[in-house]
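step=encode ok
step=design start
structure_in=
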């Protein structure tokens, strides 16, 4: 069984920073792309940032230049460094990973979500 566990959310003032972490654990054979999504109140879930197994990254236009996604393959962990946070970044952030587990088909896995609130 594979699990994704997020940490690092919280309350921060506008202009502040937060770092989210997401660790994958379980019977993992290989992890392919990893990413972060968010869902703000009253809005649909959107992709924030994604990273391939190499160094390829992709960002939503709204976070380019402020957020940085990275991963530590040895730790099966993906990070999201969020700087210059704005109130409109307030959302539940979800980790996502494309994983091939032992004895299971390759598929998408999701974390439980972590709340990020940007407010003065």
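sequence_out=
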């Amino acid at each position: 069984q594979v699990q994704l566990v997020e940490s690092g959310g919280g309350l921060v003032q506008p202009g502040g920073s937060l770092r989210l972490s997401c660790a994958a654990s379980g019977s993992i054979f290989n992890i392919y792309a990893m990413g972060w999504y968010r869902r703000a109140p009253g809005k649909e879930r959107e992709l924030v940032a994604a990273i391939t197994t190499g160094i390829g990254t992709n960002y939503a236009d709204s976070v380019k230049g402020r957020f940085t996604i990275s991963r530590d393959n040895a730790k099966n962990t993906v990070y999201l460094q969020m700087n210059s946070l704005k109130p409109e970044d307030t959302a539940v952030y979800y980790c996502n990973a494309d994983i091939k587990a032992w004895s299971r088909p390759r598929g998408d896995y999701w974390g439980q979500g972590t709340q990020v609130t940007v407010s003065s």
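step=design ok
step=annotate ok -> The longest strand covers residues 28-39.
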